[in-house]
Design a protein that fits this description.
By secondary structure, the chain is mainly alpha-helical. It has 20 helices and no strands. The protein has two domains: about 190 residues, Up-down Bundle (Growth Hormone, Chain: A), CATH 1.20.1250.20; about 200 residues, Growth Hormone, Chain: A (Up-down Bundle), CATH 1.20.1250. The chain starts with a helix and ends in a 7-residue tail after the last helix.
């Protein structure tokens, strides 16, 4: 009997991690709808990077052309800024629905691209629409969740992002059917329009936007605090320079330096990445219950250190370093993500988040270029990653010194201008 009771207690503890108590019916409905909305956002963000090698083979494009195309598609993020402005003025729901339709439709145009330039052009528009959708989803979740569930909600959405991106990877066997069959992966993305239909019928508007809409004077006086924006941009760039380089160069490191086959490199990625989902959930709950700053300051530099060690070793140490480094960064993700929308007023929340994301992607692309140049010049992966790891170390120091603690604090307390006069 005692054993059964103990097992029941453990089951409830696990369930509390995945689905915390205290969510009302509206919040449960919202998080499910946002989970669905995240799937096409992640698919659209992933499909070009997964298919560019196959498209380059058909169009006879070399590695340098592929790299340049990847940079152009990243820089297309500026397209998201006008959409973010409209999301702040017209409503979160409306722009989520609009981008949920547009992102799969525009991205799918890649299936009929007559040349590589047109393919890049379609994805330079389509991918930023998917990123914009992701930004609006995060803002929506931040505004609708309670003071002690905002980071948890973002951890759940991060898992959805992994599933959406994984569906693009799962569709890759289609690219092996023929020289041009990579186009089918873009067509498959049209299936996500079902999600747009569901959102159009079921997604409500956030209560905070409706409140703001009824108080135009509050909206007129709201502004983005420059100090908060500057700090967040610096942090985003420093973190993304390292994370982008690690993700882009990992397969190349495994195959060229460690001699891994494509299948073994794929297995390495699955084994070291999948457990990070647990880190996301735990990180979200810890960030809500124990504080964002504490978890971020500890796990960000530790994760960067472990991954850097993995780039200097081989065998079990390399696998374990990548595994636990990824878990550490996953633990920090919910806390760092929720900061981007918590520290700005409702009237400017989407725009602020979009500006930070834009800076992060542009900064990350610059870091990728620099890392590529250093590697081509003969520097080792360990040396390059060791230098880039100084970014996450600086991030932890900045978070400790400059960030406020936002756990269990209402958005109105963090942004007093949101309070009605």
């Amino acid at each position: 009997m005692n054993t059964a009771a103990a097992r029941l207690g453990k089951a409830r503890s696990v369930l509390a991690l995945v689905w915390p108590s205290g969510l009302d019916a509206r919040q449960r409905r919202v998080i499910v709808l946002l989970f669905l909305a995240t799937l096409p956002s992640a698919y659209v963000n992933t499909v070009f990077t997964q298919t560019v090698a196959f498209a380059s083979e058909e169009f006879d494009i070399g590695p340098r052309g592929q790299g340049f195309a990847a940079a152009i598609v990243r820089w297309g993020i500026v397209i998201a800024l006008p959409f973010a402005l409209y999301a702040d003025k017209l409503g979160r729901r409306r722009m989520i629905v609009v981008t949920a339709w547009l992102a799969p439709l525009v991205t799918a145009l890649g299936a009929v691209a007559p040349n590589f330039s047109v393919l890049v052009a379609t994805q330079t528009i389509g991918r930023p629409l998917g990123i914009a959708l992701g930004i609006f989803i995060v803002v929506f979740a931040t505004e609708e969740m309670g003071n002690n569930t905002r980071a948890w909600a973002l951890s759940i959405l991060a898992i959805a992002s992994g599933i959406g991106a994984g569906s693009a990877v799962a569709a890759l066997p289609l690219a092996g059917l023929s020289l041009s069959s990579w186009r089918l992966i873009y067509v498959v993305g049209l299936a996500w329009l079902v999600v747009a239909i569901v959102l159009m019928r079921s997604l409500p508007e956030t209560q905070r936007f409706l409140t703001l809409h009824d108080a135009p004077a509050v909206a007129r006086h709201a502004h983005i605090h420059r100090d908060r924006m500057a700090v967040q941009i610096i942090v985003a760039v420093l973190a993304n320079v390292f994370i982008a380089a690690v993700s882009i160069f990992q397969i190349r490191y495994l195959t060229e330096v460690r001699g891994y086959s494509a299948s073994l490199a794929s297995l390495f990625t699955i084994v070291t990445v999948v457990p990070s989902s647990l880190g996301l959930i735990i990180g979200g709950r810890l960030a809500d219950n124990r504080g964002r700053k504490r978890i971020a300051v500890i796990t960000i530099p530790l994760g960067a250190l472990l991954i850097t060690v993995a780039y200097t070793t081989s065998g079990p140490i390399m696998w374990l370093g990548t595994l636990f480094g990824g878990i550490c960064l996953a633990l920090a993700y919910p806390a760092m993500s929720v900061f981007r929308s918590e520290l700005f007023p409702t009237a400017k929340r989407n725009l602020a988040s979009a500006l930070i994301t834009t800076a992060s992607l542009v900064g990350g692309s610059v870091g990728l270029i620099g890392a590529g140049i250093a590697l081509d010049a003969g520097y080792s992966y360990g040396q390059v990653m060791g230098v880039l790891a100084l970014g996450p170390l600086a991030v932890s120091i900045i978070v400790l010194a400059k960030y406020p603690e936002t756990a269990n604090v209402s958005l109105e307390e963090l942004n007093p201008e949101d309070r009605r006069a």
